[in-house]
Amino acid sequence: MLRSYFTIAYRNLIRNRTFSAINIVGLALGMASSLLISLWIQDELSIGTQYANGSNLYRIMENEIADGRIVTDEDMSGILSDELKRQFPEVVHAAGFSSKEGHILSVGTKIARQTGHFAGADWFKIYNIPLLAGTAATALNAPNKLAISRKLAEVYFGSPQAALGKSVRFDNKADFQVTAVFENLPATSLDQYDYLQNWELFLKHNPWLTGWENSGPGVRIELRPDADPAKVNAKLKAFLRGRNKDINATFDIQLFLQPETEAYLYSNFKNGVRAGGRIEYVRLFAIVAVFLLLIAGINFMNLATARSTKRAREVGVRKVIGAERSSLIGQFMGEALLLTTLALVLAVTLVSLLLPAFNLLTDKQLTLPTQHPYFWVLLAGLLLVTGSLAGSYPALFLSSLNPVRVLKGTLRFGSGVQLFRRGLVVFQFVLSMLMIVGTVVIYRQLQYIQTKNLGYDRENLISIPGQGELAHNYSMFKQELLGMAGIQAVTHSHTNLLQNGNTTDGVQWTGKNPTLAIQFNNTVVGYDYAKTLKLKLIRGRDFSPAFGTDSSNYLINQAAAKRIGYKDPVGQPLKFGDRPGKIVGLIEDFHFNSLHVPIRPLIIRLGETWGANNILIRTQPGQTKQALASIEAICRKINPKLPFTYSFVDDEFQKIYKSETVVGTLATLFACMAIFIACLGLFGLAAFTAEQRTKEIGVRKVLGASVASIVGLLSVDFVKLVLIAIVIASPLAWYVMQQWLQGFAYKIDVSWWIFALAGIVALGIALITISFQSIKAALMNPVKSLRSE
User: Fold this and answer.
1) Are 571 and 582 in contact (CB under 8 A)?
2) Maximal CA-CA distance, the chain
3) Burial class, 260, CB count within 10 angstroms (exposed 0-12 / middle 13-18 / buried 19+)
4) Quick check: is 110 in a domain?
5) pLDDT tens for residues 36-68?
6) What transmembrane ranges does the database entry give (predicted)?
7) Residue 317, Cα to own-chain centre: how many angstroms?
8) What digits encode the pLDDT tens for the residues 195-219?
9) Which domain holds residue 546?
10) Pairing outcome for strands 573-576 and 507-508
11) Is 564 contained in some domain?
12) Torsion angle, CA of 285/288/289/293, rounded to 10 degrees?
């Protein structure tokens, strides 16, 4: 029996080559897309979960409640980690962790810029990163200690064992001893670094972090396995009260735990409550994967039920000779699974061919995990779900046919069957419309971000790190540069121009309510800051060497002026910490952080000979190459043993929105795939409809019908279905995209024309698909079509 089932299935596959090919290709594309998305999702879900003790690992977060809003971040005091170990018996290990830093590491003639962090002595106890040399207890327990990755050990010393105990020079200033070599971090590690330095050294360089009022680094802890996180959270909430003297009735800092396993996917907080993050993209593409499978499965159902008249007589004969309905269902489900198996083989082949390009696009290292049982479970699940979805309705429908009516030739399909087929087509195009609208909105939002006026000119702006002797010789460096061709202006900033996380509540002004603790972002800059960035001065002036008192004066942005409340802030007194001065300039608001957050109050201080961490150079348009040569020559003169490194501010800006860019590209690709698969099904249905109406078309042509009228006749029903899909999908798409845009402080409006454009695209593609078969049928010789009947 099984052999006969297989023979029948094979014959039907060969006999109906066109429809079989449409089914197999449609299913293959849907499954290949879903499989790619599944691999991407699995990788996203695995980030930060590779540690054996991961369920006990937490990050300390804070809700800063001030000025009528709640801001959540992980910036802590530098002494918090040690205090937690003393005060909380539930904490097994705790370690501070600084933001990423870049330094020039040299060993003999081997010199290169590397990135790393400062970390507490418990770091390797918290995270079970394999150590190839050294021990977790001694890796970071003294200021001159250094832990490096296998990669650095091999680059500088040849092997991990050869690196142990050797000396590495930092920025040609200080030497550190390698006391541990750790395994290269996997791509699934949320923190990526190639070296770690001792925490006490970090506090020595940043003594302001040894008090409770200032913050900057993060803190990671490991709880005892039997500890109750809820109880720890309850104690953490009020931990800083009594320690931080700034906390009062209007300003509070409440600490809480965030599981390490959630840090990557749930990084966004709103009003102190977790509000998503990367998990939104995971959910989005999981839905896309289901959509693509549904669209491909609907193709199969539609074509199978449409061609049911071709199988009706076979069903009638088999029922007459005693076939049970269950055996017929088994046969048709078997045929569906056979087609699905062929499609799955094609899908896996496509995925293996497309993975290198997909990895390049998503910046991942995905592979087909054929060695893991879960991969085969995934394939089996994909086969069964898709095969069952595609074959269930046709099997149930065909097996229910009345054999007497079939063999008498009186079989007529009711309106319910046709309504079901049309509903499936509408559903396909609803899903396709959702994806088209989503793609257009995401693309426009990305374009808006990339072209929005940031309040400064990021073109022809170069940033170089103030490494080695550059910071100490900044004045000389600047003067030499300004004498070179192609250089327009030079300044520096203590903070990253694109990511300024420095905040303070230590700002006083005339008329301020002394009980309020209002947060201001702040930075230290050099002369010509406004000139170099091309910031717009609304009133007042930039810092200038002509005014000796500017060392204690301030520039503020419009958001700060509004919060302070001065009607005309220029010339008004302002005190930052213990530095009284006055406001000399009001700058138009500009973006110094991501467009995901609104512009916050900013205070800019002068420090021409201090804080030159980031040197900013504006070049003359069209002379960037010449300017770079000049910059490199002077850098090499000041830092002869260090390599020259630089970046374009515009490129760094694009990197901030890399995730959104990748999502936009993937959305576009999968939306195109959805439309293509849907149109494959439409092509098949149009071909079948034309085939069924061959005699009618022939008669109409004999009676004088034009090609255009016949094309319209065959197309009008499908066009109606697509129009219904557009009407249904538009409000759904509007709601979904409004929710996605809530993650941006600055966003586009979802205009009506986006839906009109998406509708025109969907309708146009559908018309092209239908017209191909319609025109082919309309041009057929009526004599041949009538003779064939």
Assistant:
1) yes
2) 107
3) buried
4) yes
5) 999 999 999 998 888 888 899 999 999 988 777
6) 21-41, 281-303, 336-355, 375-398, 419-443, 666-690, 702-730, 750-772
7) 57
8) 999 999 999 988 888 888 878 889 9
9) 468-644
10) antiparallel
11) yes
12) 180
